[in-house]
Amino acid sequence: MADFRGLKFRTAGDWGEILTKYFGASVIFLPGGEIYEAMKRGVIDAFEYSSPSINIAFAFHEIAKYAVFPGIHAPGVLMPFIVNKAAWAKLPDDLKLLLREEVLAECIRNYSIESVGDIKGIQTHRERGMTILYLSEDVQKEIEKASVDFYNTVAAKDPFFAKVWKSVSEFTKAMRETNSLQYAK
Q1: How many separate domains does the chain show?
Q2: Would residue 152 count as lying in a domain?
Q3: Mean pLDDT within 12-41
């Protein structure tokens, strides 16, 4: 965990706040298109961007020696479907149902394609000289502990966030139990 202290780390959002507040990193936000040059010139020491399949196209293997997994800062990819409320209200129920199912199907398709692409992405990282590292469970637990504290602090100040955080926490606990029963370690 001491390796984070003073590290010039490109990231954004809550993960950036957690890195700064709990681990002493120096968080810098840059658009994705600026990461390569910033890393090459030493403006940043580390960064997070996307999945292995997406990162290949950015040639990050040329400027980074290590790829570290899992991406605990973003344990899932959001695929939001955003629609104007008034337009949605005008749709008949049968079209709403059809649209919901089509969006779900697209999310599953995208997830599947990216998952298979990530297999090739990790292989390509290795072939191009990157070392793949896995964060120890101790490090993951320390980050999770800090994250829970961070979100509990936010929840104490915001009733709506508290409601969402409670739901997310309960779901995470239930999913972990289910996964531990279904999948071998």
Answers
A1: 1
A2: yes
A3: 94
